[in-house]
Each structure stands twice: as C-alpha cells, then as structure tokens.
Amino acid sequence: MSARDLFHEAVKKALHKENWIVTDDPLQIEFEEVTLKIDLGAERLIAAEREGEKIAVEIKSFASNSAVSDFHTALGQFLNYQIALEENEPERQLYLAVPIDAYETFFQTKLAQIAVRRHQLKLIIYDPIMEVIVKWTN
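Structure (tokenized):
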C-alpha cells in the first residue's frame, strides 16, 4: 500500500465537517492492467430526490523543499487519475487538495496558474491545523 500524505487525516476530517461521506480510503480504479489508488473517494447527498454528488480527492502536503517538484508529481498523478476516472467513473469529479500555505504562495505563481487553468484542475484548499476546507475551486 502506498504511503499516506502527511495531511491525509486532516483532509478527511475537513470533508466530514462539510457533510461528505468518505466511501473509499483509498479509491481504487482499475484501468486495464494498472490499479490506481486515489487518496479518497467521497459522496454527498444533494437532495433526497436527486442522485448524490461524487468526488475523488488526491491529497498533497507540499511539504518538501521544492514546491515545483511537488507540483510536478501532483499534476502527473492528477492527469493520470483524471483519465482513469473519465473511463471508469465519469460521474465522479476529481479534486487536488492542497494546503492553504501552498495555495497562497506557489499556486499564485504564473506557472501554477497557467497549469491549473490549462488542465482544468479542481482544487480543495484546506487548513491542516484547523482541519477545515477553506475554499473549493472549479
């Protein structure tokens, strides 16, 4: 089993506070001969008479000495997971969860902003100390 991100439990608790039910920890997606493991799968009932909303969340801490290197890894995983979800669970929206400090610094750079826009990354910005979601971006 792959190692969990430093802030895995904080994001899980933050989702729970927003009434998400974590259904998979991790969410395993089979894509031909490859098994991909996205950190979390969650769903939330939108209304009693409507189908639930489903998401997959890849959690990143951006805790290494190189935010650029962390971003390369996160972006590569995100793009691969997006392909697998489009083929196997197209109703599930993929989000990249990043801590507020990385969002307020690295994600404000031109490189990050262009990459987020070009690849249509959906972000969950979380506070790992307070264990809350600060912002959702689409």
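The radius of gyration is 15 Å. The chain is about 35% helix and 35% strand.
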